[in-house]
Design goal:
Blueprint (H helix, E strand, L loop, with lengths): L1 E5 L6 E5 L5 E4 L3 E5 L21 E5 L4 E4 L8 E5 L6 E6 L6 E2 L5 E10 L6 E7 L12 E6 L4 E7 L4 E9 L6 E6 L7 E4 L2 E3 L15 E10 L6 E12 L3
Antiparallel strand pairs: 1-2, 2-3, 4-19, 5-8, 6-7, 7-19, 8-18, 9-18, 10-15, 10-19, 11-12, 11-18, 12-13, 13-14, 15-16, 16-17
């Protein structure tokens, strides 16, 4: 069953699956929709970007990698750390092409699974960010969900003035698929949702937006600063939509 309704904070018409709460159609001027269905999907390295390809992978150290999963139902991409004692990053992002804007009613949504729970200091991050930095929490501008060893999801925004990080109250296990949505329609009141339910609702996630800090890119990644920790973050789809101005 489906239902057409406006998004929570704007009048953009949305077609929502009433069972999964997935936004299956967004009637917005700017919309990214990637289900990773290409059977020969290879994500190019950020240093070897390919014409016509949005995605790039950022590899630090020797993680297992960022790649499409063979024969995966619906099509998926996995970001996987290795058990090597070192700093590692396995990030799926837009190669620092910041084509989206928090000032233009941006909404990010992704269906993800923590296929292997992070161990040690490993961290999963899912959302939108400014330019990549060494360590996801070091990225200057960001709005994302994070998860560490317990599988507990946290909601995190950083506008380079105020860094807010609070629990969502939701913990994932390895068999869970979760639809995560970040609604920046009102940048002074960013909303986080897990499977259609608003989380961290008593916290105000504000973003002091300006032309300098509003530009972002989609970002799905696993990172560890050191140690032998592992973790695999699998993404079924990534969707971003916003107004043209």
């Amino acid at each position: 069953m489906g239902k057409v309704l406006p998004s929570y904070q704007s009048n953009v018409p949305i077609f929502r699956d009433t069972v999964t709460h997935e936004r299956v159609a967004r009637f917005a001027p700017i919309a990214l929709n990637d289900d990773f269905l290409n059977p020969s999907l290879v994500v190019p390295a950020v240093g070897s970007l390919e014409s016509g390809v949005l995605w790039a992978k950022k590899l630090v150290g020797t993680p297992t990698g960022v790649a499409g999963v063979a024969n995966a139902t619906n099509g998926t991409v996995a970001c996987t750390l290795a058990a090597t004692s070192e700093k590692e990053d396995a990030a799926l992002y837009a190669g620092d092409q910041l084509c989206f804007s928090v000032l233009q009613g941006l909404v990010f949504e992704s269906r993800v699974q923590l296929s292997v729970l992070p161990t040690g200091v490993a961290q999963a991050s899912i959302g939108v960010t400014g330019v990549w930095a060494d360590g996801h929490d070091a990225i200057t501008y960001s709005a994302f969900f994070t998860a560490r060893a317990s599988g507990e999801l946290f909601c995190d925004t950083d506008d380079n003035v105020t860094d807010v990080n609070v629990t969502s109250g939701v913990t994932l296990i390895t068999t869970d698929w979760a639809i995560l949505r970040i609604d920046c329609t009102d940048p002074l009141n960013i909303l986080f949702y897990v499977n259609g339910a608003r989380v961290a609702a008593t916290t105000t996630f504000g973003w002091a937006t300006s032309a300098a800090n509003s530009k972002v890119q989609p970002f799905v990644a696993m990172y560890k600063a050191s140690g032998t920790g592992v973790g695999t973050l699998t993404a079924d789809y990534v969707r971003v939509w916003q107004n043209r101005a």
